[in-house]
Structures are given as structure tokens and as C-alpha cells.
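JOB MANIFEST
job_type = single_chain_structure
chain_count = 1
residues = 91
[input]
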Amino acid sequence: MKKQPTTRTTAAQAGRGVAETASPLRRQVLMAARRRCEDMQDGAEAREQMQSDVLDTPAELLADLLAALSTVRITRTDLFHPTTQPERSNP
């Protein structure tokens, strides 16, 4: 049997079985969580933990979690800016 080339799973494709049985709000939170994991270039273990955390979140907190995951979107590269100004020495 030939090895199949690996393809990158997009946020829309990941965890479809779980998302299909979840409430509409929880599905939105799962999508936002997946996008955040993609932004941060998280590995498979971190993505699974994020999904588990979302699924364990009580329903009354889902709207707040969605707001937190959706408002500020940064990527890992946003956290590590190279310094563009040389350090000044005190005379």
C-alpha cells in the first residue's frame, strides 16, 4: 500500500464529528478556538486540549469565551518582534 501524502487540516475540517453534535454557540466557539490554535501554530496536543476545554466549558460561559477568542487575534510572530532601534548608551 502506498503512503498517502499528508494534507494540512483546516479549522473547518478539524473535529467535524464533535461539532455536528454541539450546540450552534459551542460550534462557533470551537471554530474560534481552532482559528486561535492556527494563529499560534499550536501542535496536535495543544489543539486537542483546546477542544477538550471548550467542550468542558459550561454553556453559560460560552458567549464570554467566544468573545475572548474572537476579539484580539494575534499570531506567534506578533509576540516576537525584532528590535529595530539600536540601544542607546548613556554618556
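[summary]
The CA atoms of residues 55 and 86 lie 47 Å apart.
DSSP finds five helices and no strands in the chain.
exit_status = 0
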